[in-house]
């Protein structure tokens, strides 16, 4: 097992390694509420469009294209919030989250059927579900909503499993690091939310 993992790490392509490094920088900067994170995130996502296609995860590949667009939106939204000094962290009502979760599950089931019949997707439902969850979490993040981190906890853990199962240990490790950062991110943003509410 260890030998196989080492072989896979040695075989890691330079573009995957660069995508991992940029992705890690993105999450650290976003965690610190630094808008430069959106630039690193866009660059990482451009690389992962191709890497996800190589891993036979078509929904993840499409998701990376969305991340590039959301990086532009996030940069603009965070810049505007800073200029207006209205960059506070907000919350979403619980009933909105309930609707969002049901919508994610239904859309994921529909997309999984399409993936099974039209692609060689390795994990049709999980690929679709993490994609839908990540789409929503990214929108919440760009809108400075606290709960974005909770969606990331779920999406990152499942995505790490999928990449690891497909022989991409470095990418799996990246998503595990995202999972840890999401835990700290939620705590830090929750603390800041309580401070600004007080």
Mean pLDDT: 86
The number of distinct helices, counting runs of at least 4 residues, comes to: 8
Query: How would you classify the helix and strand content by structural class?
Result: mainly alpha
Beginning-to-end CA distance, first to last residue: 51 Å
How many distinct folded domains? 1
Q: Give me the Rg, rounded.
A: 17 Å
Q: Helix proportion of residues, in percent?
A: over 70%
List the quaternary state of the chains.
single chain
Commentary on this structure:
Helix content is about 80%, strand content about 0%. The protein is an all-alpha fold and about 200 residues long. It has one domain. The model has no long low-confidence stretch (mean pLDDT about 85).
Task: Sum this structure up briefly.
The chain contains eight helices and no strands.
Q: Which descriptors apply to this entry?
A:
82% helix; 198 residues; mainly alpha
Helix and strand topology:
Layout: H1 2-10, H2 14-31, H3 37-54, H4 58-83, H5 94-118, H6 124-142, H7 148-165, H8 169-197
Helix pairs in contact: 2-3, 2-8, 3-4, 4-6, 5-6, 6-7, 7-8
């Amino acid at each position: 097992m260890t030998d196989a993992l080492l072989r896979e790490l040695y075989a890691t392509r330079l573009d995957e390694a660069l995508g991992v490094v940029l992705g890690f920088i993105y999450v650290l900067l976003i965690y610190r509420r630094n808008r430069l994170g959106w630039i690193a995130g866009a660059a990482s996502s451009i690389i992962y469009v191709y890497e996800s296609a190589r891993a036979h995860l078509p929904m993840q590949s499409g998701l990376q294209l969305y991340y590039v667009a959301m990086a532009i939106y996030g940069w603009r939204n965070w810049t505007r919030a800073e200029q207006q000094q209205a960059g506070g962290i907000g919350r979403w009502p619980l009933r909105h989250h309930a609707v969002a979760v049901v919508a994610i599950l239904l859309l994921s089931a529909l997309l999984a059927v399409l993936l099974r019949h039209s692609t060689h997707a390795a994990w049709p439902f999980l690929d679709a579900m993490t994609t839908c969850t990540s789409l929503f979490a990214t929108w919440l993040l760009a809108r400075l909503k606290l709960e974005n981190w909770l969606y990331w906890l779920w999406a990152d853990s499942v995505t790490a499993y999928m990449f690891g199962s497909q022989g991409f240990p470095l990418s799996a490790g990246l998503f595990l690091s995202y999972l840890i950062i999401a835990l700290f991110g939620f705590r830090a943003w929750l603390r800041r939310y309580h401070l600004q509410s007080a």
